[in-house]
Amino acid sequence: MNALNLKKISSQTLWGGIAVGFTILLMIAVLLDSQGNIKLFSQVVAGGLYQGMLIFMVAAGLSIVFGLMDVLNFAQGSLLMVGAYVGFDVLSRMSASDKTNAFLLTLHVMVIGPILVLILWELTARLILPRVMKTVEIEHSSLFGKIQVVALTGVPLGFVVGSVWAKDFSGESDVVRVIFAVVVVLIALLSVSRNNILFGLRWLSNEGGIRFRRGMALLFNEEASPSDHVDYDPQFKQFDLNKEWLPLAFGVVVTVLVALVLNNTEVLMLRFGVAAIAAILAGSIAGIVMEIVFIRPTYVRPFFQIVLTFGLALVIREGIEYRYDIDPKGTLGGYLPEFLQGTFPPAYLRDLFPADFETTILNYWIFMIIMGLLMMIGVQLLLMRTRIGIIIRAGVQDSEMVEALGVNVRLVFTGVFALGAAIAAMGGIISAGFLNIDTTMGDLFLLQAIAVVIIGGLGSYAGTSLTAIVIGITRSVAAYFSRRQFNTDAPAPIVVLLLLCLVLYVKPSGLFGKEH
Amino acid sequence: MSELILEVNDIHTFIGQFHILEGVSVTVQQGGITVLLGRNGAGKTTTLRSILGLANVRSGHVQFQGREIRGMRPYKVAQLGIGYVPEHRAIFRDLTVEENLRIAERKPGDLAKRREFIYSLFPDLERLGHLGGNQLSGGQQQMLSVARALVPENQLLLIDEPSEGLAPVIIEQMMEAIRQLSVHTTVLLVEQNFRMASQLADQFVIIEEGKSVLAGRMSELVGNTELINRYLGAA
Q1: N or C: lower Cβ tally within 10 Å for chain B?
Q2: Interchain contact A3–B (C-beta under 8 A)
Q3: Domain A2-96+265-506 falls in which CATH fold?
Q4: Does ipTM top 0.85?
């Protein structure tokens, strides 16, 4: 038994090492061929990395969804396209007026505030509070409870603070908006202190009732009933510091800080951010609808799913052609904030580098690489460190047992599908900043993402992440050599497929896959 | 007569096209251990799965604490307070022992409250916490599987073949653990090992070819070699 495990672990390390070694070899080949031209070399590597990240954003959803539900979703690429088109739609519709800008700021604070509050609160509750207050037993409430508290404090506060602080907020009083904000804040306060208020009301009515009955008994010269005495559940008596008031205070401070920072950022950045939020929302809603309406009824008939998701991809493409017509929309390059345009180093970092330092790497590539890395690490943390992650990893093996433990697996399936769709849609708007928006953009990524998921090992998230980078760099290097030899980079995608064939021949379960 | 915690009344269960249970009735009283006996393939496991909602029950009633649970989704049934220890253990191999326990929490803090009790039953688990589920021996996996069902406060545990494939020493340990946990929690046990079943259980139900045929007090069955031979083969 033990020897077997040892073999399994070393097999992952072995194949991971081979993949990394292969990538390094490719890079050395470029370095030698270009005779030490660092500029060219860095361009090939950065180009490979950004392509890898974009492929990853499609492959991530594909991989997790396949691992958990055994569904190979051929419409994942279409979700990327949905993200790109929705982003384009939102960006091209926004006017440049002050009111729009104020609205954008408000929206940002409302979205970013709660997320930051949640993250910072988690860190505080887990790292700092136990050290400062040793006597206080910190009871971690459920993720849903936290999200509720955070959303209820962060969203309305963001609304108020964002509205008030917007740099270009015009003097016209928007009474309805203010009243709405006040009402939402009150609801939030009520919800946070609900237990205490309920306890107060119950206490009042109980004690009042008891005194009234005693008085009546006195009036009629009767003995007061000894049962006229109420015991309260101890949990309502104490003031719950951790669950209620601290997060609230936290929410206020963090939201105000977020608003302050955002108020001083470029308006174009806010616009791009709002478009990204819209794209992600649209993608996850599309994912949720797909899962609930189409995929859920076919879990028992796996073959149907392949045909079904393939059909859905076509339907989505036709829908987009109907809505936005077939002409390519160009890139979103014109809508990008200044610091994402031009080549590295950007203007605000110019002073850090020697005066003659120049590269051919676009700032936007670096942005794409950073976003991809953040996604990669974020999902990895979600899978390894959270309860949801434990449920997903367990569900990959035996979802029936997870259900028998009291987890609503159907809901988890939908959530995971939505997560994968959201990542793809985000990949869509990010790639649209650099690549042409048209109705075939999803298909290109889908093919490579499928190759990545198979090479990495079906259902292995780590394998998918690593392979996405390897494939990205392989493509970039292949394009470099074929440009030199044939003056075209058309053969580059073929190399990816050759690699796929090779891996299937040598290790059919993929680099990190489990042998069955 | 103590209160009924579970009442299964004449259920008919299908797996695909196959009519597996053709009228099974089981009553489980609050407290103590009830054992389902019967030959291989008689339908004992399917009975447990039917109670949880994991199998397709076409007719009949399943009542838990007076509430009809037939047709409810399995996670809802579990949340009412039913723990499940399936046959072959169903440990999550890619999760650590600690994570295997954490996944069973129904609300935060469940594990913290029960940890001491769990370790008192299965001291081994304490030092194995960081190991992966795939690194455990069969006996350790079985202990983890039972421990997992103890994390939330369940009123009823469904335990399927806890002695299957275990060494005699481990079986003794497992029996002792089940005896101890049954002080707080009602247990419905499926067990082929008649010696183990007879020492643990207060009540028995015999299932044969998808029908429940006999039920009563364990003490009445133990001396009756004729019944044992007829329904269970050689004891």
Answers
A1: N
A2: no
A3: ABC transporter involved in vitamin B12 uptake, BtuC (1.10.3470)
A4: yes
